[in-house]
Queue: 4 jobs
Job 1
Amino acid sequence: MKTDKPLPTANLKRLRTKDLHLTAFLTARGSRLMAVDRIGGVMFFTLAAEDLPELVQDFHGNGQVRILDFCGRLRDLKTLIFEDAGALASGHQARG
């Protein structure tokens, strides 16, 4: 996933989660995906945004996101997971 412009890093709050749907929602709302790590068989996503606490509350409440953006991010994340799993199966190291 690409962002149009780099975000300043000084005021960014970070979150590490294994929740795929939360990650899709947050990235669709503008959070930056900073890292993807596999620990054992579990993928962890590290996200950053200035308004991250409010965005997480939106996800658990009635926050809105364009469905096409959400589905596109979800598809991209699943592709990332399956590509990483394929690399591990073929003996390559996971990205992080």
Job 2
Amino acid sequence: MTSGTGNQAAEVNRLLRQPICGGVFGRGRYELARLPCVLRGLHSIRYMVVAPEAGAVLSVSEDKTETLAGARRVLSAANDLAEATNDESTPEQLEIWPMDGPAAPVAPRQVSRRRREIF
């Protein structure tokens, strides 16, 4: 009988990684990881672009070019956001709701008499 931690260690060892250099990826800051898996009963590979320092996954796909394109979109959007906020540090998620408080309640829509009679 195997322990849960040993099983997780086996999963991590299956992740094959290689550094990505050039373009928005910089010089070895991000890695292209490959994870062998079984998909619909057939052996397959899932590709991921990961940032090892942050432990973040930028993009996941079954096609290498789609994975790289998705990661490029994420990084370019993060760079655009950093430029728009004039922030030189790494981009972080902005607040979704403003600090002004909750929005004014919206009045419920009127239901026609015919619909009320049906229900």
Job 3
Amino acid sequence: MLRSYFKHPEGDIKDKENWIAVDKIVKNSDPEEKNILDELFGSCKKDIKQYISKKDSVDKDEFWKWLNEISKEIAKERGLI
């Protein structure tokens, strides 16, 4: 869902409900967090592990925890959990 959101910032018509859920969560995110998500998913990086390994100041455990929290928020917004 995150990749689709950042690939189609104007809205993904095929998967509109998911796009709206992600949009709501991302818009309520801290601007720095939004920039990280955009950098990670907007450029369609295939390997998240490679991305975070290149970021010196990123605690890898905290990064995964944060990314999982974002994913859970999206799922809740979407009514999946």
Job 4
Amino acid sequence: MQRITIGRYGIVPDDIPRPADPTKQPAQDMYAGWVEGVRNDGSEWVLFIDKDGSPQVYWPTRAEDGGVEGDPVALPRYGNVDPPSAI
């Protein structure tokens, strides 16, 4: 493991426009924070956290632009949930 970063999203002002497609909402509208890491081979992953500090969804692969790729893994603390298709 090369690096792990933990972050918290700030409050997003109401005048910031949002995408019309609800499955494409910015991460800060759906989660309170994140944990991201870089593996030894340089590949990256991200885990999004709710307002209580509990992990909610994990994407094992990040795109070069910081987006997510592939299928997310829902973390079932509160039962199985359908995570958004992409962020």
